[in-house]
Amino acid sequence: MTAQQKPQLHEDWIDSYALRIVRNLQDAGFETYLVGGCVRDLLVGIHPKDFDIATSAHPNQVRKKVPNAYVIGRRFKLVLVKRGDQQFEVATFRRNVTQEELADQGDDSVEGDNYFGTVEEDAVRRDFTCNAVFYDPGQHKLIDYCGGIQDIENRVLRMIGDPKARFIEDPIRILRAIRLSHKLHFSIETTMRAAIAECSSELKKSVLPRRREEWLKFLRLKEPHLAFMELFDLHILEQILPGLHSVFADAHKMEIFEIHLARINLSGIDKNDPIELFAGFMMAFMKAQYGEEPWNHDELSNDAKLAYFMREEMGIFKQEIAIFFKALYLMQGLHKIESYSRKGERRQAAFVMNESFVLAMKLAKMDYSLSPSQMHYWEQQYEKFSRGPAPRQKPEETHH
User: Contact, 66 vs 81, CB < 8 A?
Assistant: First the structure.
């Protein structure tokens, strides 16, 4: 990739809808900027996944000025703007709350639990300096109150304020710090690294849905096993993922886990689909934990320890677990081409059009358990039945 092709902080690399939202609000007289991950990513040469917007306009003012805008959130109100299948978050500048204000709920700047402030007050509330840089695309101007630009240039991840206090305030920041350092290839500033080690047990107080979201983001990293390895080294896995800690504590299991996890990138697993991403992770985990031999499907699906790891440690939903186990079951059928070919077309279609069939194929690619000719055969079968009107699947027809 040439230097010219690398993403940079230039209008060409900024989503046109995001630019339009910023201009809409600026034209209406509101101070408005792009902020956070999108500015940071463009400054380090990464394509941003989302474009977040910060403004002096209050949520209802945004809603009135921007088409297809919806106010969401109970505690912190923000605005979601929908454009096709994309959505953009527009947040009002906020500030820290004083103890007096907490005691006195009659403050006019409050709507629910929203204390609105200036762009500078908003910057110091953010977590890391690299996430607190604002960009005005109209003026082509960067606004930085926290030294974020310097830290981005030095490739250092630094906490705004006292790291220990900020981790106690929100322990999920520990996971975010590790993940961002791997995504951006930034080093973690020394006092923050020490605070991570000291505050790791605070993560037990974090709620599972937020940890689940972080695990999905970890799995979207280019080399997630390196990030999990760092969590192991910092004694974080033993706090919140003891099931995975037991894999990393055994050098042989850790190697099997890493090899299989790296294959997620080669198997066609959709990293935007939590079901597929968690299935790929669980495949790697189970290969490490239960060995390469064919597993007893019934035993595993009734294994309380495994169920606890999936539900209570990883935060995988019940339905996602069911689809994963179904895919493991279908994988066994992928080896029985002769038996399959003797079935009637209706039962063949029921097998191939099962909701877990495509996932089973991807897991088989991760596992290298099918020969190229077997894989080609199933791809042709899938193409055949997904083209025509397949008969409706009946529960009794799913057995193979």
Answer: yes
Q: What are phi and psi of 45, to 5 degrees?
A: 85, 35
Asked if 265 and 259 touch (Cβ cutoff 8 Å), the reply is: no
| Catalytic (active-site) positions | 50, 52, 127
- Tell me which DSSP letter residue 75 carries: S
Angstrom distance (rounded) from CA 236 to CA 245: 9
Are the CB atoms for 221 and 182 separated by under 8 Å? yes
Query: What are 71's strand-pairing partners?
Result: 79
All residues at 6 or more sequence positions from 161 whose CB lies less than 8 Å from its CB, including other chains: 124
DSSP, residue by residue, 151-213: HHHHTEE-BSS-HHHHHHH-THHHHHHHHHHHHHTPEEPHHHHHHHHHHGGGGGGS-HHHHHH
pLDDT digits (tens, 9 = 90+) for 189-240: 999 999 999 999 999 999 999 999 999 999 999 999 999 999 999 999 999 9
User: In angstroms, how far apart are the furthest CA atoms of the chain?
Assistant: 77
Strand partners, 94: 116
Task: Please answer whether residues 234 and 178 qualify as being in contact, where contact means their C-beta atoms are separated by less than 8 angstroms.
Answer: yes
Rg of the chain taking only CA atoms, in angstroms: 25
CA distance 26 to 19: 10
Q: In this predicted model, what pLDDT tens digit does every residue of 50-60 receive, in sequence order?
A: 999 999 999 99
Per-residue burial over 90-126, b = 16 or more CB atoms within 10 Å of its CB, e = otherwise: bbbbbbebeeeeeeeeeeeeeeeebbbbebeebbebb
Sequence-distant (6+) residues with CB within 8 A of 317 are: none
